[in-house]
């Protein structure tokens, strides 16, 4: 074993994203893949890892975090389902291990991260905003973690700018017709064969609209961000949410 390389384990290794992560880590010259874990596998091989990359399920990720903290392993998490409340739970858990770092990223594609930053800037200047996220039909959560995080960022920016509620005179609707309300931002989820991961943010104000859109056509688009997070987390104790602060 070459100690100069970052020793990486992958949780959810046989899933669609996990398989890509394993290939990316194997191809990275400064990393060594030391453990690949999926349903039914024991966690013991992860004890040799410095960093664990987690692409599992919302039901299992908190337990995975507890195991890694107990065994002194840093984490990079791409699993969906991290609400504001869940993020605070992770922050509380990390307080017991201030030497360890966890990066939680709703999206590892650089373009998606930039879209969220652009959306935060635009949100201060537009009266209306809605989000449409589009994914493959095998995705188990809706809305996507990316859409949830984008909505949260937009809501924070609107609050800082002193904007009120988004105008909407709807009084009658079929259930779900107006999407989900995430901190005052409507989010619509589409699932269709042929899609991978796509998001639009539509802003509107008197006389103009602005549409921001990001498309991932292949899961390989997420791998540079995953590898960046693995390299960064070793020197970032505490909780990092999103890749924005890692991009410089």
TrEMBL record:
The keyword Plastid does not apply. It comes from the Bacteria. The lineage of its organism: Bacteria, Bacillati, Actinomycetota, Actinomycetes, Micromonosporales. Pfam families: DapB_C, DapB_N. NAD(+) binds at residues 12-17, 38, 78-80, 105-108. Transmembrane segments: none annotated. Coiled coil: none annotated. This is 4-hydroxy-tetrahydrodipicolinate reductase. The active site is at 135 (proton donor/acceptor), 139 (proton donor). Its EC number is 1.17.1.8. PANTHER family: 4-HYDROXY-TETRAHYDRODIPICOLINATE REDUCTASE 1, CHLOROPLASTIC-RELATED, DIHYDRODIPICOLINATE REDUCTASE. The keyword Chaperone does not apply. SUPFAM superfamilies: Glyceraldehyde-3-phosphate dehydrogenase-like, C-terminal domain (SSF55347), NAD(P)-binding Rossmann-fold domains (SSF51735). Keywords: Amino-acid biosynthesis, Cytoplasm, Diaminopimelate biosynthesis, Lysine biosynthesis, NAD, NADP, Oxidoreductase. One of its GO terms (molecular function) is 4-hydroxy-tetrahydrodipicolinate reductase. It is an enzyme of class 1 (oxidoreductase).
């Amino acid at each position: 074993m070459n100690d100069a390389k970052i020793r990486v384990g992958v949780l959810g290794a046989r899933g669609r994203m996990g398989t890509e992560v394993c290939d990316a880590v194997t191809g990275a010259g400064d990393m060594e893949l030391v453990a690949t874990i999926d349903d039914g596998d024991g966690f013991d091989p992860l004890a040799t890892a410095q960093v664990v990359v987690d692409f599992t399920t919302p039901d299992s990720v908190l337990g995975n975090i507890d195991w890694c903290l107990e065994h002194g392993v840093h984490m990079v998490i791409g699993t969906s389902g991290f609400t504001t409340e869940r993020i605070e739970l992770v922050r509380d858990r990390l307080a017991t291990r201030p030497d360890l770092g966890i990066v939680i990223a709703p999206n590892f594609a650089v373009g998606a991260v930039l879209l969220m930053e652009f959306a935060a800037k635009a949100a201060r200047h537009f009266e209306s905003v809605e989000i449409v996220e589009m994914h493959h039909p095998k995705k188990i959560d809706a809305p996507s973690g990316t859409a949830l995080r984008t909505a949260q960022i937009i809501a924070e920016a609107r609050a800082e700018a002193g904007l009120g509620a988004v105008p909407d005179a709807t009084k009658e609707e079929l259930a779900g017709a107006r999407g989900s309300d995430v901190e005052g931002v409507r989010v619509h989820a589409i699932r269709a064969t042929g899609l991978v991961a796509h998001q639009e943010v539509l802003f509107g104000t008197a006389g103009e609209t602005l549409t921001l859109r990001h498309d991932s056509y292949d899961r390989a688009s997420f791998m540079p961000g995953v590898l960046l997070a693995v390299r960064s987390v070793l020197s970032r104790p505490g909780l990092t949410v999103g890749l924005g602060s890692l991009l410089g």
